[in-house]
From TrEMBL:
Cited function: Catalyzes the attachment of glycine to tRNA(Gly).
Keyword hit for Flavoprotein: no
Subcellular localization(s) per the UniProt record: Cytoplasm
GO molecular function: ATP binding; bis(5'-nucleosyl)-tetraphosphatase (asymmetrical) activity; glycine-tRNA ligase activity
Organism: Parapedobacter composti
UniProt keyword Aminoacyl-tRNA synthetase, yes or no: yes
Protein known as: Glycine--tRNA ligase
UniProt enzyme class: ligase
Aminoacyl-transfer RNA synthetases class-II family profile domain residues: 170-393
Gene giving rise to this polypeptide: glyQS
Length: 488
């Protein structure tokens, strides 16, 4: 990461805390590693991102429905899914700093360094060597790559490494009225299994016909050892997943379709297409016959924000085997029973949040020959903006606050709107720019005479005089969900 991009990312993190988007969890107790809280504006932005995904996935598709499965599941669920035996990451410790790292990520960072330094041949060769080691589950090979390429611990600066070993990522706890009767249960490491075990319930109660999908938004938990890159990798995070059930033999066609559909969804938010790319998996999970990541170019490099996987019939077949229940679908078109194949789209909401934040954040120099000036602005798509409009009386007297609150009370029935009367109007504009508010509505003395206000636009900073009776229509035309959904 160059100094410029490093500074940009530090500024994004600082801005997120200063304006109430993201806080370190339990900060008064010095925080908890890899755990964060979403502040008042962060919660609004998260809710808007969830609404956008849900509308695009469920509302726009007649054959996709949503559920909300429990976090706790019968422990056999995780035996069937393979998480008990195989949900591991290759970890390596530095003996001097006592810090633990994911071996593959240390190597990926060295690849990124090679690329940044223009050493493309070395980057490509190391990537090929990494892929080969991962495919072969060659833990000794991973350590050899770390040593050969002189990868040091970021804390101690030494190469005093342990061997690479596998580390299970699931959190476990006890469920039961007494210690003697307690059963080991797990905090779910993904939301997908809650969909699979409800396949028959949803299919029968909803009279669903293949192909159809089940969507879910929910918390998942992984005992991530590496606490870096802000909210990129956390122990408690939120997923938005959709499992799409299809007839065997058609899965790769659907896989290609969902791959294209999901990238279009990301681009509709307003990010540059140059910042997104597909990354095909070289090493496929044991259940998959095709897999790709949609990656976004963060300040620290391209990282996954969404995965699209063709999971075959592995999940339903495993649950059929372990539960002893028949989990099949009778297809009237071909008069045949079968276990459906599955195409999965899985997006990390927290990573999406960071993507949107990085996309939107901009520090502008507005200086002129006469004076120095600048602003920090979040250029959120208006539909996603936490606050849609700010109502600002020019002064605190002469009836202007009363007029302003009259407008506020009308707008807040439909939109999240803020009222602010503190400081100069210029400072208030800058505050709203910093949180991404698309509109500022200023009430002045002319407003009392002709019922008009000054409407200021966030991106252009242009101002226009409009009638208060037109405000709702103007705001609606810009922030309506239709502006995003029609692009899909």
């Amino acid at each position: 990461m160059s100094k410029q991009t490093d500074d940009f990312f530090k500024n994004v993190i600082s801005h997120a805390k200063e304006y109430g988007f993201v806080f370190p969890s339990s900060e008064i107790y010095d925080g908890l590693s890899a755990v964060y809280d979403y502040g008042q504006l962060g919660a609004e932005l998260k809710n808007n991102l969830k609404a956008y995904w849900w509308k695009a996935m469920v509302q726009l598709h007649e054959n996709i429905v949503g559920i909300d499965a429990a976090i706790f599941m019968h422990p056999t669920t995780w035996k069937a899914s393979g998480h008990v035996d195989g949900f591991n990451d290759p970890m390596i410790d530095n003996k001097d700093s006592k810090k633990r790292y994911r071996a593959d990520q240390l190597i990926e960072e060295r690849i990124a360094t090679y690329e940044a330094d223009g050493k493309i041949d070395q980057a490509e060769q190391l990537q090929a060597d990494l892929d080969a080691a991962l495919n072969a589950d060659d833990l000794a090979g991973l350590k050899s790559l770390i040593e050969t390429h002189n990868i040091v611990c970021p804390i101690s600066g030494t190469k005093n490494w342990t061997d690479v070993r596998q580390f299970n990522l699931m959190f476990s706890t006890q469920m039961g009225a007494s210690a003697e009767d307690a059963e080991t249960v797990y905090l779910r490491p993904e939301t997908a299994q809650g969909i699979f075990v409800n396949f028959l319930n949803v299919q029968k109660s909803g009279r669903m016909k293949i192909p159809f999908g089940i969507a879910q938004i929910g918390k998942a938990f992984r005992n991530e050892v590496i606490a870096r890159q802000f909210i990129m990798r956390m122990r408690e995070f939120e997923q938005m997943e959709m499992q799409f059930f299809v007839r065997p033999g058609t899965e790769l066609e659907w896989y290609q379709q969902w791959k294209e559909t999901r990238l279009k969804w990301h681009l509709a938010i307003g990010g540059s297409s140059a910042k997104y790319r597909y990354h095909d998996h070289v090493k496929l999970a044991h259940y998959a016959n095709a897999a790709v990541d949609i990656e976004y170019e963060f300040p620290f490099g391209f990282k996954e924000v969404e995965g699209i996987h063709s999971r075959t019939d592995f999940d339903l077949s495993q649950h059929q085997k372990y539960s002893g229940k028949k989990i099949q679908y009778f297809d009237p078109e071909i008069s045949q029973n079968y276990v459906p194949y599955v195409i999965e789209t899985s997006i990390g909401l927290d990573r999406l949040f960071l993507t949107v934040l990085c996309n939107a954040f901009e520090e502008q120099d507005l200086s002129t020959a006469e004076k120095q000036d600048s602003r920090s602005v979040l250029r959120f798509h208006p539909a996603l903006a936490p606050v849609k409009a700010a109502v600002l009386p020019l002064t605190k007297k002469d009836g202007l606050p009363d007029k302003a609150r009259e407008i506020l009370n009308r707008l807040k029935l439909d939109y999240n709107v803020q009222y602010d009367e503190k400081d100069s109007i210029g400072k208030r504009y800058r505050r709203q720019d910093a949180i991404g508010t698309p509109f500022c509505i200023t009430i002045d003395y002319q407003s009392l005479e002709d019922d008009t206000v000054t409407l200021r636009h966030r991106d252009s900073m242009e101002q226009e005089r409009v009638a208060t009776s037109d405000l709702e229509k103007i705001i609606r035309n810009l922030v309506d969900w239709k502006n995003l959904l029609v692009k899909l």
